[in-house]
Design a protein that fits this description.
single chain, mainly alpha, two-stranded antiparallel ribbon, globular
Length: 203
């Protein structure tokens, strides 16, 4: 099975036909897709003006989309290195049991679904690397009341998501599943109240 870097070389290789280069970019998303495979593909297509079903897109646009994905992957890999160092220090100091922060990280190992978007057509508009930097900064700061990616204050608790965890706070602005450790207890409670009000209005 080809790894991310091997697939990236195929995307760049002008000797490969365009259908293979496009296919290789899609396969890269099986290795790293911050919003989930479908939402990350939709994001890259919209940002780089690639028709999602075009089998022979402009190669320059394919490479630009790959470069955005690679930059975001570099941000995430650097974060994972630092995360591993921190856990090693904590274990050395006797802290063996991971907290809720580490529970979130376990579900996003490898960078797939880091900022999960349950609806593929609703995702942040900023470059992937910027989104991940904002998310990481929030994870390393005190919890807040707003979405760490777009600063939207209206966050709704949703259930039946297509990703583990199968429920949680979703930003109504950019569509990401907000990691619970970045929100205050009050913000989490409010997201559940918003859901109850929505359910009551439908009933």
């Amino acid at each position: 099975m080809a790894g991310f870097r091997s697939l990236a070389r195929q995307v760049r290789d002008p000797r490969c036909d365009l259908a293979l280069r496009r296919y290789s970019l899609r396969k890269c998303l099986e290795r790293f897709a911050p919003y989930g495979h479908r939402a990350t593909w939709d994001h890259l297509c919209s940002r780089h003006m690639i028709e999602p079903e075009d089998r022979a897109p402009d190669p320059a646009r394919l490479v630009a989309a790959l470069e955005e994905l690679e930059e975001a992957r570099a941000v995430w890999l650097a974060y994972e290195v630092e995360f591993a160092r921190r856990r090693k220090r904590e274990k050395h100091d006797g802290l063996r049991r991971p907290g809720s922060f580490d529970d979130w990280h376990r579900r996003t190992w490898g960078g797939c679904g880091v900022a999960w978007c349950d609806e593929p057509g609703i995702h942040p508009v900023a470059p992937l690397g910027d989104v991940l930097r904002r998310l990481i900064s929030a994870l390393e700061s005190e919890p807040g009341a707003n979405c760490p990616v777009c600063a939207e204050s209206r966050i709704v608790w949703k259930q039946g998501l297509a990703h583990d965890p199968w429920f949680g706070p979703v930003c109504t602005g950019c569509g990401i599943l907000v990691p619970q450790p970045v929100l205050t207890a009050e913000a989490l409670a409010e997201s559940k109240r918003v859901r109850r009000r929505e359910l009551a209005s439908v009933a």
